[in-house]
């Protein structure tokens, strides 16, 4: 039997109670529409909510139970809508199924998957759910992209070179040897390189913590929010200072060329 699948990784989403309710209402509407016309009980759909919170997991069958866990939890790690029928539960090649996963720890679990033996149903269901999810997109893509590790690494190298130059200049008069400056530079740079080996992954973890792929809006730590805003302001100031510096340099170069 031919099976159609539509899926998408969910990136840079702020999950709120309103969004969960809207998704739930749409999924229930989809399920009811199928179950009203489906005569085969093994092809009728049911909805399961899987929620991991406060280092424990729970699987429930009503939205009220799921949202109660959500509201009472201190930390939400994962929230999943899982729609199956008996056929799809046994074999995804048959029947219809929907899975929407939001996970703050594993990006591979953050997916929307719609699968079924009816291509039109798959397309319409996928589009309806994507439209709801995309309304909750945030700006964390600025930090959550493939260039971030590269930029952090380049920034680290530049800072390392500058610190090494400063350190070498400070050490040079204290070293009573020939070629003291390059020797001091190499020593300081090697020292920084060893520190950077451990600092680099820690910085990436910090970035992922401050600007995560998935954010549960009502469960954000106040301190994290304050730090994030402070970092946004700091990075904005650095960016503006950099633009100003580059602009001034370009003006000086142009001025010298046209003298």
Topology:
Elements: E1 4-9, E2 13-15, H1 17-37, E3 46-53, E4 56-60, H2 63-72, E5 76-84, H3 86-90, E6 96-103, E7 111-116, H4 119-134, H5 147-171, H6 180-210, E8 214-216, H7 222-257
Parallel strand pairs: 2-8
Antiparallel strand pairs: 1-7, 3-4, 3-5, 5-6, 6-7
- Strand runs, count: 8
Largest beta-sheet characterization: 6 strands, antiparallel
Overall form:
elongated
Q: State mean pLDDT (0 to 100 scale).
A: 83
Oligomer: single chain
Structural class: alpha+beta
Cα distance spanning the termini:
77 Å
Short recap of the structure:
This protein is an alpha+beta fold and 259 residues long. It has two domains: 4-137, no CATH class; 141-257, no CATH class.
Description:
This protein is α+β, with helices and mostly antiparallel strands and about 260 residues long. The protein folds into two domains: about 5-135, no CATH class; about 140-255, no CATH class. Helices cover about 55% and strands about 20% of the residues. The chain has helices spanning about 15-35, 65-70, 85-90, 120-135, 145-170, 180-210, 220-255; strands at about 5-10, 15, 45-55, 55-60, 75-85, 95-105, 110-115, 215. The strands form two sheets. A six-stranded antiparallel β-sheet has the order 1-7-6-5-3-4. Strand 6 (about 95-105) and strand 7 (about 110-115) form a beta hairpin.
